[in-house]
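Dissemination and training. As part of the outreach component of the grant, students in the summer workshop were shown how a complex can be specified as a set of sequence lines and then modelled as a single object. The example used during the hands-on session is reproduced here so that future cohorts can follow it. Participants entered these lines:
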Amino acid sequence: MPSSPLTDRVTVWFGEHRRDLPWRAPDRTPWGVLVSEVMLQQTPVVRVLPVWEQWLRVWPVPADLAAAGTADVLRAWGRLGYPRRALRLQECARAITERHDGVVPSDEDELRALPGIGSYTAAAVVAFAYGGRSVVLDTNVRRVLARAVDGAALPSPAHTVAEVRRATALVPDAPGDAAAWAAASMELGAVVCTARAPRCGACPVADLCRWRADGYPPDLHAARRRTQGWAGTDRQVRGRVMGLLRDSVGPVPLVEVERLAVEGTDRPRLQRCVDGLVADGLVEVVGDDEPALRLPA
DNA sequence: AAACCGGGGTT
DNA sequence: AACCCAGGTTT
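and obtained this result:
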């Protein structure tokens, strides 16, 4: 699409209000952008910042991470959550080192073929690392378009064909403009057009927002969204075990893990979680008669 | 299409 | 205590 009031105004707004983030600095590298995108998949900016800084200091290029010890990688990942992604990021670094001569690909299909890189992250790296044209459709952009164009409070739970087609049609023709729109629309959704308490007074397109014009109708999909529990889930137990191992220098006896894991977790459940962590490559079992757990070497 | 996967912050 | 945040992989 040549341009539209929506893309133009959001992009201009971004030029004035963009947050200064290290992975947006002029001296950023494609590798730094990729690392930031993987971390930001699951974690708010303020928690990613210090980990990203250290990560890039210790492993400034993919070959550095490829050669690192897995335990060091998992400790550096810290409490960002979803530690399987740290493993995939290291696999990704190895693939870039071996298959792409250490250069982060700029081709979207090649990016998507890397471990841990899906459609969103591939599009984001194309746009933010290389200034290329891609369709960046994360939850923020989906919400902005659902509101401004469709007049819906929130996007549908799953991507729809029509939604992707619409987002594709909206991307400006020039690669630089497309990349700017991608960053701008994400930023608008992240800081102004937020899920719960949108700041419409600060929105550059409030006057053409259909959701606002229609009087903020409620979410049609509310009944089908269900909040995922946390207390007592396998995720909580896994997180607790990983925390124990991260903070321990040597192997931790399984009996000690059982004692320090989540209160009220029965033995079969803990065993199931440990087995899952082992299967994921996040934990190693050492010793037979006196089994202990540790982070993989 | 749906389930799985963390952890911190806000309300 | 309840709710919010988010994308990739696996089944």
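Chain A has 15 helices and three strands. Students were then asked to discuss how this feature might be tested experimentally.
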